[in-house]
C-alpha cells in the first residue's frame, strides 16, 4: 500500500499502533513494525528519559524496521520533564513521533531540525487546523468511539474523518473504532490515508499484558465501555469493570465530584498492576467501543496481513457495486 502516510513514515502499510500507557513497549512495537505497520513506544510508560533510551535500544534489538515514540503532553501539577524526553528521542535517532494531549508546538522546531516527522493526535477539527499551522506533518483524528481521551465534543469518526480530510492539506490518519480491514477500507474511503489502532493491538499475542485482560476484552461487547472523568471535563473511555463503574457512580453523586474523591481508584500504578497481574476488576483498563468487533487474539503479523487483505477485498467489493 502506498499513501502519503507510508511515504512520510517509511512503513509498508499505513497501519499505526498508537501510544498506549503501560502497553506500548518494545515487544509489541517491534512486532507491529516487523509486520509492516508503524509501532510506537509510549514514552511516559518509561519512568525517566534514560529508561526511555534503553527501551528504544531494546526495540532496535528486536526490529530493523522503522518505529516511533508517542509523547503525550498532559497538564499536571508536577509535569514530567517533557523537554528531556524530547532530547532522548532526538539523541537515539528516532524518526517518527506521535504527540497527543496539549499542543506540541514548543517541540516541533527541534523535531523538524532533526528530521523527525510529527503525527499529532487530536479530537476536533479546530485543534487539527491549529496543529497543521504549527507545522506537524500528519494529523491523527480521534473519534468519540476511541479508547482513552475522546475530547469533550462527542463527534464520531464517521463525521470527523471526512471533515478532517476536507479541511487539512496534510495527510489524515483515522483513529478510534477500527479493528479490521472493513474499518480500514471505510477510513480510506472517507479520505484518510492510514489508520491508528490501540485496543485492537492490545488483543494480540505480543501485547505485554496478562491474558485474563485480553480474554475479558475479547468477550466484551461494544456496550461494555464507560466514560469516566466526564464531570471533570477530562473524559476517558475505559472498560466497564468494577472500578470504572464505581468511578461513574461517584461522579453522579449529588454535589459533584472532585478528583480526590476518585484518585485511589484511578491511580496509574493500580491500572498497571491490574494489566500485569490479570486482575480484570483491579484497576482502570483503557478500551474503546471497538471491543465489540474483536473475537480473537492473533499475532501482529497475522492481524496486519489479514487487515490488508480484507481492506483490499472490501474496496473491490464497493467498486463492483458501481
UniProtKB/TrEMBL annotation:
Record carries keyword GTP-binding: no
Keyword terms of this UniProt record: Flavoprotein, FMN, Monooxygenase, Oxidoreductase
Domain of life, source organism: Bacteria
A GO molecular function held by the record: nitronate monooxygenase activity
Cross-referenced InterPro entries: Aldolase_TIM, NMO
UniProt keyword annotation of Protein transport present: no
Name used for this protein in its record: Nitronate monooxygenase
Source species of the chain: Azoarcus taiwanensis
Amino acid at each position: 500500500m502506498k499513501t502519503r502516510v507510508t511515504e512520510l513514515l517509511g512503513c509498508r502499510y499505513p497501519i499505526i499502533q498508537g501510544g498506549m500507557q503501560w502497553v506500548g513497549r518494545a515487544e509489541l512495537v517491534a512486532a507491529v513494525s516487523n509486520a509492516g505497520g508503524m509501532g510506537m513506544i509510549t514514552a511516559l510508560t518509561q519512568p525517566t528519559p534514560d529508561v526511555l533510551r534503553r527501551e528504544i535500544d531494546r526495540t532496535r534489538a528486536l526490529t530493523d524496521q522503522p518505529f516511533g515514540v508517542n509523547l503525550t503532553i498532559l497538564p499536571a501539577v508536577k509535569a514530567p520533564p517533557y523537554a528531556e524526553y524530547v532530547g532522548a528521542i532526538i539523541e537515539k535517532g528516532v524518526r517518527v513521533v506521535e504527540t497527543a494531549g496539549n499542543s506540541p508546538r514548543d517541540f516541533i522546531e527541534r523535531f523538524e531540525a532533526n528530521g523527525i516527522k510529527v503525527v499529532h493526535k487530536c479530537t476536533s477539527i479546530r485543534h487539527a487546523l491549529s496543529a497543521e499551522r504549527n507545522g506537524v506533518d500528519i494529523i491523527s483524528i480521534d473519534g468519540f468511539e476511541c479508547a482513552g481521551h475522546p475530547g469533550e465534543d462527542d463527534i464520531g469518526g464517521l463525521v470527523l474523518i471526512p471533515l478532517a480530510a476536507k479541511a487539512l492539506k496534510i495527510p489524515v490518519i483515522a483513529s478510534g473504532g477500527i479493528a479490521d480491514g472493513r474499518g480500514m477500507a471505510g477510513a480510506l474511503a472517507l479520505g484518510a490515508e492510514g489508520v491508528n489502532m490501540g485496543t485492537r493491538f492490545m488483543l494480540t499475542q505480543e501485547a505485554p499484558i496478562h491474558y485474563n485482560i485480553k480474554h475479558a476484552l475479547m468477550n466484551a461487547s461494544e456496550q461494555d465501555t464507560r466514560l469516566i472523568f466526564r464531570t471533570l471535563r477530562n473524559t476517558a473511555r475505559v472498560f466497564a469493570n468494577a472500578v470504572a463503574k464505581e468511578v461513574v457512580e461517584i461522579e453522579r453523586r449529588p454535589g459533584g465530584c472532585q478528583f480526590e474523591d476518585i484518585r485511589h481508584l484511578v491511580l496509574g500504578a493500580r491500572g498497571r498492576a491490574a494489566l500485569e497481574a490479570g486482575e480484570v476488576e483491579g484497576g482502570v483498563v483503557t478500551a474503546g467501543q471497538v471491543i465489540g468487533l474483536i473475537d480473537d487474539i492473533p499475532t501482529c503479523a497475522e492481524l496486519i496481513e489479514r487487515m490488508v487483505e480484507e481492506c483490499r477485498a472490501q474496496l473491490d467489493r464497493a467498486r463492483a457495486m458501481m
